[in-house]
From TrEMBL:
PROSITE patterns: DAGK. This is Diacylglycerol kinase family enzyme. Residues 4-137 form the DAGKc domain. The lineage of its organism: Bacteria, Bacillati, Actinomycetota, Actinomycetes, Micrococcales. Belongs to the diacylglycerol/lipid kinase family. The keyword Transferase applies. InterPro entries: ATP-NAD_kinase_N, Diacylglycerol_kinase_cat_dom, Lipid_Phosphate_FormReg, NAD/diacylglycerol_kinase_sf, YegS/DAGK_C. Its cofactor is Mg(2+). The keyword DNA-binding does not apply. Keywords: ATP-binding, Kinase, Lipid biosynthesis, Lipid metabolism, Nucleotide-binding, Phospholipid biosynthesis, Phospholipid metabolism, Transferase. PANTHER family: SPHINGOSINE KINASE (PTHR12358), SPHINGOSINE KINASE RELATED PROTEIN (PTHR12358:SF54). One of its GO terms (biological process) is phospholipid biosynthetic process.
Length: 323
């Protein structure tokens, strides 16, 4: 809050994706109309994609911080807001905008998003925490809002051209997938859910979700809830092309269409004993060790090669402005 006693907003924006001058013409009048004080403005950089300047904004008295950029900007701003009293406001402008979609916030309508920020309500959601163990023995901690993963998804992220993303959007991931999937194979992991015995399994991909919906309404984890204090885990075990077809059928047919009706849900229960290429788990935390180092991704951004990782849910750690 400012010295005048008025609430104060800050804007953290990615200048490559967002026109700061245009945002000013929309946000500053809306702030004044809502009775808020002068807005603070911060640009992200390659060295600081948002976390540090967000903490600077909070120290300067910001009650709410707009994250204006792609999923990486939103994730980094959320890290800076963790366990603070300031709320996150979303101005999605990236390729996927997954948190906004999972919270039913407008994508591509900046005036509506600004209106929700100033006149909506505050919802406290969980923040996923990834504690990464590097090959050299160092430990790093990072937050994520939607999903993290290892396997084909992380390999695709590691091989996606940033230039192509800016040019053709989500089609850049298709380009990377065409190059990665033919040579991809299963790998062995050992995982342990909190208070459970450990398991060894070969997987094609393993995903850790705070939210469940991906681009295009794809329900990767249909039972995931963003504020339940738990992480949902999807273990994908594909055996060749037919296995991937089965995964696609389950995501589009069972997780999507069938779950929308009582009859469909009965069909799912009746066939749940069949061998599945996707196994769902849920826990407040999970530890994973790897036979061989692999890439890891958090909210679609590659975070390099790791030897192991622990994922946890920091319950209610982030305040977000919603409808």
């Amino acid at each position: 809050m400012s010295e005048s006693g008025l609430k104060r907003a800050a804007v953290v924006y990615n200048p490559i994706r967002v026109a700061g001058a245009t945002l000013r013409t929309l946000i500053e009048p809306a702030a004044a109309e809502a009775g808020w004080g002068e807005t603070l403005w911060f640009e992200t950089t390659i060295d600081d994609p948002g976390k540090d300047v967000t903490r600077e904004a909070v120290r300067a008295g910001a009650d709410m911080v707009f994250a204006a950029g792609g999923d990486g900007t939103v994730r980094s701003v959320a890290e800076g807001l963790r366990d603070s009293t300031a709320a996150l406001a979303l101005l999605p402008s990236g390729t996927a905008n997954l948190l906004a979609r999972n919270l039913n916030l407008p994508v591509g309508n900046v005036p509506d998003a600004i209106a929700i920020a100033f006149s909506g309500r505050t919802r406290h959601i969980d923040l996923g925490i990834a504690t990464l163990s590097r090959v050299d023995g160092t430990i790093e901690e990072h937050g994520f809002l939607v999903m993290a993963g290892m396997g084909i998804d992380a390999d695709i992220m590691a091989n996606t051209s940033e230039t192509l993303k800016r040019t053709v959007g989500w089609l850049a991931y298709v380009d990377a997938g065409i190059r990665v999937i033919p040579s991809a194979g299963p790998f062995r992991i050992r995982y342990q859910l909190d208070d459970k015995p450990s398991h060894s399994v070969h997987v094609s991909t393993i995903l850790f979700g705070n939210c469940g919906t991906l681009t295009g309404g794809l329900e990767m984890m249909p039972d995931a809830v963003v504020d339940d204090g738990l992480l949902d885990v999807a273990v994908l075990q594909s055996k060749g092309t037919l296995g991937w077809i089965d995964i696609w059928r389950k995501l589009r047919w069972e997780n999507g269409f069938l779950r929308r009706s009582s009859i469909g849900r009965r069909i799912i229960r009746a066939t749940s004993g069949n061998a599945s290429t996707i196994t769902y788990l849920r826990s407040s935390g999970i530890t994973v060790s790897l036979d061989k180092p692999r890439d890891v991704e958090l909210d679609g951004d590659g975070f390099g090669v790791i030897a192991g990782v622990r994922f946890t849910a920091d319950a209610g750690a982030l305040a977000v402005r919603v409808r």
